[in-house]
Structure formats: C-alpha cells, structure tokens
Amino acid sequence: MTAQTPLLSVIVPAYNSEAYLDRALATLVDYNGELEVLIIDDGSTDRTPTIADDWAARHPGVVRVIHQENKGHGGAVNAGIAAATGTHLRVVDSDDWVDRCAMRRVLDLLRHERAAGGELDLLITNYVYEKQGKTHKATVRYRNVLPQGRTFGWEEIRPWRYDQYILMHALTIRTALVRESGLHLPEHTFYVDYIYSHKPLPWVRTLRYLDVDLYRYFIGREDQSVNEPVMISRLDQLMRVNAIMVDSMPDRNTVPENLYRYMVHYLRINCVVCAIMAILSGTTEHLAMKDRMGADLERKNPEAARAVENDCLGKLIRRRSDRFLKTGYGIARMILGFN
Length: 339
Description:
By secondary structure, this protein is α/β, with parallel strands linked by helices. It has two domains: 8-219, Spore Coat Polysaccharide Biosynthesis Protein SpsA, Chain A, CATH 3.90.550.10; 228-336, no CATH class. It is built from twelve helices and nine strands. The protein has helices at 21-26, 48-58, 72-83, 100-115, 175-180, 193-196, 228-233, 235-248, 257-281, 284-300, 302-309, 323-336, and strands spanning 8-14, 35-42, 63-68, 88-91, 97-98, 122-131, 139-140, 171-174, 207-219. Strands 1, 2, 3, 4, 5, 6, 7, 8 and 9 form a nine-stranded mixed sheet that branches. Helix 8 runs antiparallel to helix 9, helix 9 (257-281) packs antiparallel against helix 10 (284-300) and helix 9 crosses helix 11. The protein starts with 7 loop residues before the first strand and ends with a helix.
C-alpha cells in the first residue's frame, strides 16, 4: 500500500440523475486526495454522462467515471466495488449527499487507523432522512446500541430496537473485506441495499461507531423506490432480495451470537416489510408470494425461521391480515419519514 492510496472510495451509482448529481458530487470532492469518487453511469439517456465527465475533467485523479450499459443499482455497485482503490468503501446514491464536516471526521478516523496499523472492518455512522416537504428531519443514530470512542467486537453490541438497523447509508466497509465476502448484487433489481448491508457481516470482526450525521437520505418523490405504491408494484423484487438474505444467513455456530441475532433482526425487518406490502396490496398473487416467503424460509433455514418468528413482530409474517401490522407500519412511517 502506497501513501497515495485513498482512504475511502465512494461509489456513486447514477442513472438519469441530471437533476441531482451535481449536489451529490459537490459534497464528495476536495478532501486532499484522500477520497476517490467513482461515478458509475448506468446507461443514462439524459445529461448524466456529460455531467459526470465534466466532474472528472475538473478533478483528475479524484473523480473517475465508468460508463456502462444499464444494469440497475446492483450492477452499478458491483462495477464500483471492482474498480475501487481506497482502503475503505461506501456507496452514495446520486440523489443523496453527505455532510462535509462529518466526512472530514470520517477521514480523520480512517487516517488514524492507517497510521496506527489497525485494520478496521466496519465503520458505522448516522444518516438523516431528508424528506421532501418535511421540516423535521429524522436522524437514525446508534448511541443506545454501540460503544463510542474505540474499536469493539460483536460481543459488545447491545439489543436493537425494531426501528433500528444499519442500512447501507450507515456503512463504511473495508474494501478487501467486501471482496472477500463474495458480495455480488443482482442486476436490474431494486432494494439490493438490504443485501449489501447483510451479506458481508460474517466477515466483520472489528467495528467502530462515529456519532456524526454523515449521510443525507433524500426521500419523498412519488417515483422513488421506497414510495409505498412503488414498493407494492415491485414486491417480486423485494421477495428476490429476501431470498438472497436467507441464503446469506450463516450457521449460528460459526459467528458471534450477537452478530447472528442482529442478522436475524435485519432479516425479520425485511420479511415484515414484504408481508406488509403484500397485505396492503391484498391481491391473491401478492398474498401467495407472502406465504411462499415464509415456507421458503422454513425449508431453506429452519433455525433462522424459528429465530425470525420467535418474536411478536415476526409472528405476524404468516398472517393474512392484521390491523396491528398496518397500524404499526403507519406509525413508523410518520415518525421516521418512510415513503
């Protein structure tokens, strides 16, 4: 490793992002060469390729552009992982952005780790829901779960709340670890961020939590993938992601117990989201998909199935209709700004 190796590679998947890309990139440059930006132009048909090339021309050696045929969000992230040269890796979607002061704190920590000869597998930071038309911005933090100010292992993690899990927006992962995990996201599939923040975890041994509000998650557009009607229309893709998460579950005896419990917790959340969307849809086809999800989990991994359903929220997965399930989702949507 040379002194010129970036501390961090940031992958920016970009498809027809001309309205947002400048805002994202403006928060990702001018960090003294310690951060490289990989814009993955995923077959855009608007001005995205031109905007990306312009940023690369103005920031040579810092911003690189990969133009590829359209492969979806997963295909773009895969290309970024393959091309990254930084010690650590994170993804910033083209309609989101980061807080520059918080990013400097992240780079300070990564620089310190490198100087000390440490090998930090996973850095967790906070993210903020930047919902259109909403003055109060909900922030997801982990102060109640994770130790601060030092490196720790899974055995020190405290129990998670139902509304708490580490989305892709919270993760800065060691690049070599991501590659070692064999992570390869499905192409032309939405919601692959669930896989990104689940599959590599059994390879993680050292963690840190930096309590800064780094990631700004822009939500609220009608065409956005987390908009409720859109999620219902793409329930088959949510189910496909769920099946991959099930396949990624490790044997309980091969990983720390707290890690296994967290992976079950995250899988449960995704199962519940799938169940909610099927129930809200109410169609025979979608309810049948929900039933198959539960049956497939039981068939593929009975131990994980028992762990997922051994919980008051998990028990609702197999229900055909439940007012509490809908009400609970509505409350979470109002408080956290989902959809």
